[in-house]
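Chain X:
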Amino acid sequence: MTKSVLAKTALITAGLMLSVFLCEFGLRAYGVFERPSLKKSAAEFKASADGGKIKIICVGDSNTFGIGAEQGFSYPDQLQKMFDKEEPGKYKVYNLGIPGSNSSMLLKRFQGWIEAYEPHVAVVMCGMNDSWNLEDSSYFLFTKDANSLKSKLKRMLFRLKTYKLVQLAIINVKYRKAFKTPVNARGKGDRQDVIAELRTASDLAIQDPLRAKKICEEAIKDDPGNSDAYLYLGRAYLFVNDYVAAERSLKAAIEKNPRNMAAYTELSRLYIMKSETRKSREVIAKMNKVDPGSEELFAMHVFGIPGGGCVFRLLSHNLEELYKIARENDTALVLQNYPFSAPVIEEVVDDFEKRHHIPVVRNREAFDGLDYREYSVPDSHPNEKGYGIIARNVLEKVKELGPFRGGAI
């Protein structure tokens, strides 16, 4: 019996290991064939027929790659079309967006891209994935336990595409549960209209925080005891950088429903964004007492997400290194913020602009007053129309630059 159990265990283990290997092999093979242009050598690019043109590399993550739009309608693709329409043959735009990439991964590749493309301009939008993707991440430079076994294991695991795929799947499930399904949206009398309004506010939390705020305030007026109304109001305040109001609303959500784990999660993240690590840990400790088996608490333990203060230092460090490389190679650097609210990243970009006088494309501000849902897909990536606005913003900023290296204007 014992030998039989051992044999079955060994067979299952071998099967799992083979499955992981095949999955990893398949993901890496897909990456090679999906983006063949990235595999060209520097000599091939230097020999290509783009002499005399102003060359622009667009560096970033999925928001540069073009997730959310049909192929050919990313912002770099639309930027190329706009340049061709206004000044045919003068500009060449390269899309170097890599979905899921963090700023450290982009920094690692940046010198090679500069040598390969010899660009006049590098347009950079990054940082959104710094809080979860630790592959090649400089995050460990800013942690006290950089050489601990746990940190080393994380670095090793994040080199596996299979592991990152699983992490993304967990994030997706967590997002849908935490943002799409109210945990206490019933309120008085099981009001279905209030539930529907709060679901709308949840959808709008990133896309249109001001409208979400208004919906939540009306829901609170109708039902002052509705915990989720305060939760979504807190999220709306977070996306407009009003940390004081966000903290007040999230605490109210917990007061109305002490088991609203999503409210605890948001409050913990608020303190992380403010670099108030001690308060964040206190909130997590309360979560552990209230419901140690909650999905929200499990996700926080699984990810070990870096704090906002750490992300600030991490992104600032990586942008400094990008800036040095660009300056050493006489390449103009242009930064962008995201089309949706990303407070920590915006703070980094603003700080960098002040210190180095770097031109910044302010995409989020360009969408103020617009219904972002018309310009995005459900996960908040821009759609074709959204990328069109970003492309126009970049075009206007690039045309303000020059003369470029080699006399190009």
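Chain Y:
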Amino acid sequence: MIPARFATLAPTSVVVTAPATVIEGDAGEIASELVNAGRRARLAYLDPPFASHADYRLTAGAGMGRGEVAFTDRWDSLDAYVAAMAETFARVREFLTDDGSIIVHCDHHASPYLAVALDRIFGLGDRGPTSSAPGFRNELVWRYGLGGSSPRCYPKKHDTLLWYTRGRDWHFEAPRVPATSARMRGQTKKAPDVVDVPTLNNMARERVGYPTQKPLQLLDMLVRAHTEPGDLVADLFCGSGTAAVAAVRADRAAVAVDIGRDALVTTTARLAALGGGVEVLAKEPGATPADGPVDFAATGARRPDGTLALDAVWCARVDCGASMPTTRVAWYRTARGDEWVAA
């Protein structure tokens, strides 16, 4: 029997590596650590803060505090924001395979500034005189219908996804969509650079309570277009972890990184629900082998039938005898249950 206090503890950091890895930390710093460890990603999807001058609150998730702030997107200045993003982009470039891609998800608040920063780091690509040069490939427009509008301007109903490649060669398998012309009735065509994928409404079954959750349909399209089975997909600024989930579902490996505890919990829970056998690691500040095992718990688990249970608690015992200590999820129970069972 595991002490009841586990039900209220939260992890300092969580890592999942079977077949996904979830790491607490700065996206750029973790990317550099993974380079030093010999890891390379064929696709890095970044969904960073948008410089939106707002706080983002949780909407669901037992133990995660409905209404609590998941993260704050406030910066001293736009220059400070762009400088921070540029430093991350430079580190991520070194993390990519030679034929790897980066996709940066952004919106009207800073997309032109991020594009300039990416041009400088990755290259002009298709913007320049040589279309096969490294760098810019596409500016994708994700068009959706939900959200408010202002009487003073056109409704802002799209996000921007900036795609850049590290090298002159890259993997791309164009997504297919239904053709609309009478001549191609019943056939498919290559998806254009305007993507029509519905955003998640408040009642969507896919919702897990994280405020900036992106639809699985969108990330599934990107993962399959830019990688092959067995490739590593990096979900940086992972938030709800949709890119990591899409990667694992498509037989890719995934690494998800965020500094937010709620993001770690949400992403870990969604990956655990896939039932692939979750390996959990913790990197606790100041922990050393002499400290012995460290106990921690996190909200979110999978039920015996493999479905997601955000109203559950899982816990594990961490062995600090390694530079990145490891253990497996050992127990699981629902928040309403009294008994812990083996995961």
